TrEMBL record:
The chain crosses the membrane at residues 39-57, 77-101, 107-131, 138-158, 207-225, 237-254, 266-288, 300-321. PANTHER family: PERMEASE (PTHR42775:SF2), PERMEASE RV2963-RELATED (PTHR42775). It is a multi-pass membrane protein. Belongs to the UPF0718 family. It is found in: Cell membrane. It holds the Pfam family ArsP_1. Keywords: Cell membrane, Membrane, Transmembrane, Transmembrane helix. Coiled coil: none annotated. This is Permease. It comes from Aestuariibaculum lutulentum.
């Protein structure tokens, strides 16, 4: 989908700036250019699309529908399954998360998507089958979907909406005002577009600094943290290897496809599969750059609660993997 963008990033870093591909600086800079532009493009597309949807299906109606209908938790499962078919890393999922929040989707449901999207996707599934076989892959997919679903339900029941930032509340207020105007005047589609685009620009202005800082942190980690740095904490005889692997992986940042070859190396060196997968889930499901991006929409307390709940679920999943496999 973004191969053309990767080619531009390669051209800028390796041809224009003449940096060696083996240099840490080149790897970090390439990552920064590619991910920053990609996330900004996603933000424009998602926010603009959600603006169109919201102009015809007001936030209140979406909220009322989801609260009135008894879906018995299926909304969380559906959000997790939607995450499976969207091949985004943790940072790239944030634009969709913001779009969901702006569209009035309950916070727990948006969390279910945010958790599952980076963990399980078709590329990672294909690699997983090749590296670990079908049985392990099926268990991994089910555990990834359940992780998002259960975490979403837990987070929804904690009633965390009050910990969204004032910026989000202003965005929701503006969206409500736009909807009232659209509904009252029954404006045609062409007249709605300039209003929707203005709101897209306003949201981008607010979030761009967080995108740049978050991806800069991710680029540094991507380029400079040595791959074998964490292996000493995952020894088979260490009872606390799973929580250590999960917690220490959070500062790192990669997508599932990028981290799977490392997981294979860890397993080949005798690291238990559950511990290695917990490490992988921590890297792709939670990251410091993701926290920086979420800082625009969540208070520190909400980010801490979100990371704590998902970390706990990953640790439990890691121990279960070690027992089953």
């Amino acid at each position: 989908m973004f191969n053309w963008l990767q080619q531009i990033a390669d051209w800028l870093v390796y041809d224009v700036l003449n940096l060696d591909q083996k240099q840490h600086l080149a790897e970090a800079l390439n990552f920064f250019i590619y991910d920053t532009v990609k996330i900004l493009i996603l933000l424009v597309i998602v926010i603009f699309f959600m603006g169109i949807v919201n102009s015809y299906f007001p936030i209140d109606k979406v909220k009322n529908y989801l609260s009135r209908k008894k879906l018995y938790g299926l909304e969380y499962l559906m959000a997790s399954l939607f995450g499976v078919v969207t091949p985004f890393c943790s940072c790239s999922s944030v634009p969709l998360f913001i779009g969901f929040v702006r569209g009035g989707i309950p916070l727990g449901v948006t969390f279910a998507f945010l958790i599952t999207s980076p963990l399980v996707n078709e590329v990672a599934i294909g690699l997983f089958i090749g590296l670990f076989g079908i049985k392990t892959t099926i268990i991994y997919i089910i555990s990834g979907v359940l992780l998002g679903t259960i975490s979403g339900i837990i987070l929804q029941n904690l009633n965390l909406e009050r910990y969204l930032t004032p910026w989000v509340k202003d965005v929701l207020t503006n969206a409500k005002k736009e909807q009232d105007i659209f509904q009252a005047e029954k404006q045609p589609f062409t007249k709605r577009l300039p209003v929707i685009w203005t709101e897209v620009v306003n949201i981008l202005k607010g979030i761009i600094p967080y995108v740049i800082v978050g991806i800069a942190i991710g680029g540094f980690m991507h380029g400079y943290i040595p791959e074998g740095f964490f292996e000493k904490f995952m020894a088979k005889d260490n009872l606390f290897a799973v929580p250590l692997a999960t917690i220490l992986s959070i500062p790192m940042y990669s997508n599932a496809s990028g981290i799977l070859p490392i997981v294979q190396v860890l397993v080949s060196k005798g690291i238990p599969l559950g511990t290695a997968i917990a490490f992988m889930m921590g890297v792709v499901g939670l990251s410091l750059p993701e926290a920086m991006l979420l800082k625009k929409v969540m208070t520190f307390k909400l980010i801490a609660i979100f990371f704590s709940v998902v970390t706990l679920c990953i640790i439990i999943s890691g121990y279960l993997f070690n027992i089953i496999l």
